[in-house]
Amino acid sequence: MFDRYNRHINYLRISVTDRCNFRCVYCMPEAGVPLKKHEDILSFDEIVEVVRFGAKQGITKIRITGGEPLVRKDLPKLILMISEIDGIVDIGMTTNGVLLPNYAKELKAAGLNRVNISLDTLNPEKFRKITRLGNLDDVLHGIDAALDAGLQPVKINFVRIPGENKEDEIAVKAFCEERNLMLRFIRQMNLKTGEFYPVKGGSGGICSICNRLRLTADGHLVPCLHSKAHVNIRELGVEKAYRKAIELKPEKGLGTESHEFSNIGG
């Protein structure tokens, strides 16, 4: 699939839940966000239908996000279903890592290739402050579990929070080098104003080469993280929703209030 600006769209990011066991300061309010009703959330069969049609149109790469994707019940089952679709060659997941000790080996066996794990500091007190609910040791155990399961490369997402964690970059970089982890620095963004930046160590945030669509947990295909454009697969049907989302993909994002990081996964 190619959009109006001749960008080859081959990457679908899928939010499987709006729920999370953290309350990170750059993602959601301390009290959390209103949760979607169970019937509003896409079923595994609906998600697979979206992926299967996308694969026929050239989607090859999938990333599972949330909220925190591992709080979605039976997630390894969905990974297996997606991995069996012809044309899908790469499945990744972005997670806070806390539940990886319970699921890493099962996820690998189901077809998950790799993970990105959020880690914005190695200071336990500061980690608790940033995540509001998180325990640093739990995430470190999750990183070890991902490595042991062969979910590689393990990438670390470090969000640069102004005035909060600049001094933590050196320690996190050394930690990643010691364990052969790939480090990505992500400058804190603002969806409402369309304020975003290229990801250091990754390809995100560069509009001219953007190759992705996003699927929210409640069934909206979103052509741009920083745009209000979105179409609902239940209302239009999968094929029409894809066509419309491609048509609506802007050259550059300008800001949106139609979604938050907590329900689109970044």
What's the topology here?
Elements: E1 11-15, H1 44-56, E2 61-65, H2 75-83, E3 90-95, H3 100-110, E4 114-118, H4 124-131, H5 136-149, E5 154-160, H6 169-179, E6 182-187, E7 212-215, E8 220-222, E9 231-232, H7 233-236, H8 238-248, H9 261-264
Parallel strand pairs: 1-2, 1-7, 2-3, 3-4, 4-5, 5-6
Antiparallel strand pairs: 7-8, 8-9
Helix pairs in contact: 2-3, 3-5
Description:
It is a single chain. With 266 residues, this protein is an alpha/beta fold. The protein has a domain at 11-113 and 190-260: Alpha-Beta Barrel (TIM Barrel). It has nine helices and nine strands. Helix 3 links the parallel strand 3 and strand 4. It has helices spanning 44-56, 75-83, 100-110, 124-131, 136-149, 169-179, 233-236, 238-248, 261-264, and strands spanning 11-15, 61-65, 90-95, 114-118, 154-160, 182-187, 212-215, 220-222, 231-232. It has a nine-stranded mixed beta sheet with strand order 6-5-4-3-2-1-7-8-9.
Compact summary:
This protein has 266 residues and is an alpha/beta fold. It is 32% helix and 16% strand.
Percent of residues in helical segments?
25-40%
Q: Would you list the SSEs in sequence order as H and E?
A: EHEHEHEHHEHEEEEHHH
Principal-axis shape: globular
Helix segment tally? 9
In the CATH hierarchy, the architecture of the domain at 11-113 and 190-260 is Alpha-Beta Barrel
Number of distinct beta strands: 9
Main pleated sheet: 9 strands, mixed
Q: So what's the CATH class of the domain at 11-113 and 190-260?
A: Alpha Beta
- Given helix and strand content, the structural type is alpha/beta
Compute the average pLDDT: 94
CATH superfamily grouping of the domain at 11-113 and 190-260:
Aldolase class I
The CATH topology annotation of the domain at 11-113 and 190-260 reads as TIM Barrel
Task: Tell me the distance between the termini.
Answer: 22 Å
- Which stretches are poorly predicted, pLDDT < 50 over at least 5 residues? none
Strand order of the largest sheet: 6-5-4-3-2-1-7-8-9
- Beta-strand residue fraction: 15-25%
Cα Rg: 17 Å
